[in-house]
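retry 2 of 3: previous attempt timed out while embedding beta-D-fucopyranose. Reduced batch size to 1 and resubmitted. Inputs unchanged:
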Amino acid sequence: MKTFTEDFIFGTATSSYQIEGAVNAGGRTPSIWDEFSKQPGKVWNGDTGEIACDHYHRFEEDIEIIKSLGVDSYRFSIAWPRIFPRAGEYNPEGMEFYRTLAKKLNEAGIRPFVTLYHWDMPQWAYEKGGWVHRDSVTWFLDYAKKCFEELDDVVSMWITHNEPWCAALLGYYEGVHAPGHTDLEEAVKVSHHLLLSHGKAVELYKNETKYEKPIGITLNLTPVYPASASANDELAAHNYDGYVNRWFLDPIFKGSYPKDMMNLYSKEIRSFEFIEAGDMESISASCDFFGINFYNRSLIQYSAESPLLFEPAESDYPKTGMGWDISPNEFRELIRTLRRDFTDLPIYITENGAAFPDVLEDDGTVRDSGRKDYMERHIRAIAELNEEGMNIQGYYLWSLLDNFEWAFGYDKRFGITYVDFSTQRRYLKDSAKRYAEIVKARKI
Ligand code: FCB
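retry 2 succeeded.
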């Protein structure tokens, strides 16, 4: 039996584009995901976030679900195109939606943990050059400043960016996320501007003495293992670790980009002059906590054909419905490595969860034993890591609801609540009931 202190924060998480729908309501204009998902072949089944979970209209019902779980906190993100539907044009109606949501959560004793950017850049900003353009930092700061001014009193913690690796590399290099570009130079520039906008937003927040809430960033991290002990596989694993993890960890915690990765990237990037004097100081501005989204480990092998010399290797681990290795032990190793090499900030696991092909039974139950088991193993790992002194202060289960899973559309269900998308009815899965028990007992 493992226990959690009274202070430990249990929560659940979502993001704006994945659940809200109502894409034309309240003065919102399109985001890059509205445009991307409309392009044929980009998203499974041609799915879009146009309706999603219709959370924009059903948020009160969703707050009731959150309450029934007994969690301490709820993590959600703000849709930038609701707040600035056009360049320089603030939309109070958009802000009001989030103010009401946060207020109602507070009234229910649930702490709002708010992400500013979970990938839905307004289309107008993309058309002006998007994250490739250095001015994106200024556009983001205008938006962040407004959110701080209007919401700080009802928000308990702030996250600047969710998973900049996905926004930059999946969006601008691998082409599988909006806006679907495949240009490494652009992607690396984008990563720099995302990180810079993070650092500058933290500086802006910290320079205003009236703001005192914790602020930080969330990275998706994956512990990387070579498929064999060969020098080539070791090199490939090191490169992949650089690609996903170190390219973001190093600037945030050490104030510099990893030299080996700059070398590797230099075959496609002619100049790193977009890194200007003072940028690295801003990017490494000190935060109050560090957010980690953890899903799986990565097994990597050498590939001479791949431009960055790595590719995923076949693994014999049990897998989730995404084909991702279930790897709570490697999660433990990841946290220990972070503590050793990078940071002593309080850690929040801002996302962890699993997709499985769920079946809704006639009596409204969903017996999602795979998800329940995945969740229990990771929660147990956290309790054990805390016994080692790893100082993990919170855990957010992804996700409150089945939702629009990006390029996988509605094919992949990550929710602990089943959503019947034809009726918008919600059903608590067995994993949700089990989570409520754990949260209540603060024991596993
Ligand atoms: C993370 C994203 C989140 C969700 C989960 C499954 O990378 O932050 O929006 O899609 O994966």
